[in-house]
């Protein structure tokens, strides 16, 4: 079995939370409700769309609302987006070492493909795992287990990178040591969810010892 790096997408490879939050804020405003970024952080971030819309918009067509929200997000996503600092350098190292690389996300496939294209990462990732295409999405371990299966990777010799408690629980549940990315949440919140370490981005020097261990 091989070594692999498995990444969440939103908030982990791209700082997309402000854009997602803006779309949600507008959708609530259209229904006469006011929310702010803090509400997004506490009630929406990291969750499956099916759960979000069923809970927050009872009586409406949750699937149609989710489709609209994600289409609006993609419409606002611009080509040439910058990934989280240090992403390209970490992927370059993975290529030199022959490590597998996966993106594991609860986002719809259209979003995953659009974000990777906007970041210039489409050809840098070996496989894209979508939570809704697995038996269960995050926080269940199924998406990360599927990523490991596709890559033929050993969880004990691999790392996951996540920015949300549901994602961290999914990755650790699949046996992966998980590094928390502090794009939105703080160190304590990510560690409480199971992260072994938290970093601001992939250029953080605290990540280096964990990468060195993977080299053997």
UniProtKB/TrEMBL annotation:
Highest taxon of the source?
Bacteria
Alphabetic keyword roster: Carbohydrate metabolism, Magnesium, Metal-binding
Record Pfam families: HAD_2
Q: Which molecular function term from Gene Ontology is one that the record holds?
A: metal ion binding
Cofactor(s) named in the record: Mg(2+)
Looking up InterPro entries in the UniProt record yields: Beta-PGM-like, HAD-like_sf, HAD-SF_hydro_IA, HAD_2, HAD_sf, PGP-like_dom2
Family, according to the entry, reads as follows:
Belongs to the HAD-like hydrolase superfamily. CbbY/CbbZ/Gph/YieH family.
- What is the protein's given name? Haloacid dehalogenase superfamily, subfamily IA, variant 3 with third motif having DD or ED
Q: What organism, scientifically named, is this protein from?
A: Tropicimonas isoalkanivorans
